[in-house]
Amino acid sequence: MNPRFFYLLLSLLLNGFEFHEFGKAHETKSLACVLVEEIGGGSSSIPRTIRQTPVELHLNDPLNLIPVAPITSSPETLHLHVTDPSGKLLSPKLSSCEVTYLLPQEVPLAWVRSLTEEKRSPRALGHPWYSLSVKDDTSGNTVSAVLGPQGEKDDQLTVFLAVYSPSATLYARLGDPLSVPCGIWRGQQSRFAIEWRHRALGDGRVLYAYDGRVDRIEEIFPGYEMNFSTLHSHGNASLLVDKVAVSDHGTFLCTIYLPYIRAQRDMQLEVTALPTVTFLPDPLFARPGQEITLSCEVSHFHPLAISVHILVRLPEDSQLSVLPGVSLSTHTINKDGTFSLTASLSIIASPEHHGARYFCRVRHVSAPEGVTRSNTLQVAGVAGLSLEDGMYLFMVALALYGSLTFLHRKFKLFFGTQESKKDE
């Protein structure tokens, strides 16, 4: 038998094994999504409503080597077959999937006009387009993608643009540098633009705008930059903040524009400033029956949400007890935008509380373990002579000794002068 037959048979077996393993590696289940539409509202008497349609998102094999699974869902379900050259939708742990219709159109912004300056839109814009938002539980990213037609069938789609960033809220310390993350995939499209906006309390502003086609910065706010080397080589469109200020607290929006389409990701930034805590009086001395006001001064913290408690551990106890009746002053705003306030509590010093330790405990997002200051109450006359009392008595004795010595010399000098006069 010809040896080449055995080589051919072995090759077929290996290829079959590789195909099977490839299929297992790329086999993905359908992703359950929801198509969100706003309907109604044609007149003032008809309110707008939200309609949600179930969607099955079938991720196609880019090489068409995996057979398409049969569709067994309900007839009301919309089926979309998507090819994902970006690779951002192939994670096995995608969740929170939402689809909306997208209307491709020109954008009247200075940094976007060059993308569509020829005024000729492609034929593909006549087919349905969708915006897709999914959360990747593996990486922790949320992906916003634009799905457009792949061929003439309306249910055959491909990813044209993907923008991704962390889903969790970002925390940054006041005064520190910061990189607000935003990654993009745009395939081979060379025409693109990037816009960074900041929004807080209803007010918005453009921090950075870049026209990638002409390689020109169109808008820039002082203190913000982008790394163009990582942008063009790795799709890293992160915004670099020189020093985080209280005014950066709010929502950062990263918007990527391609001709006639765009995708956006928003990230919430919490600016934190660690509070400075001072617990007064320090030292904590009192006479029996004296009223003392404990003051816990908490200054230069951000954000405003904070909790302040005064606690005590009595000499015979091993546990801390929260003291009721603590009053909080109104907060003040400092020049840098941080806040300050004072918590106070009046106590009566008694001999039984000698040696009690009082604590001021502050809970704030900038200090997960809290900030604590403490003082120990010393009641006069309870524990006998203290070192301070001994020093005080020594000083009194020294002063008394000096006074008596001075008077003794004066009397001796006076009586010695009288005796001398009598002798004469």
Automatic annotation (TrEMBL):
PANTHER family with a match to the protein in the record: TAPASIN
SMART domains for the chain: IG (SM00409), IGc1 (SM00407)
InterPro entries: Ig-like_dom, Ig-like_dom_sf, Ig-like_fold, Ig/MHC_CS, Ig_C1-set, Ig_sub, Ig_V-set, Immune_Resp_Modulators
Signal sequence residues: 1-25
UniProt organism field: Xenopus laevis
Domain (Ig-like) ranges: 149-272, 275-378
TM annotation in the entry: 390-407
SUPFAM superfamilies: Immunoglobulin
Protein name: Ig-like domain-containing protein
Taxonomic path: Eukaryota, Metazoa, Chordata, Craniata, Vertebrata
Pfam families documented for this protein: C1-set, V-set
Keywords: Immunoglobulin domain, Membrane, Signal, Transmembrane, Transmembrane helix
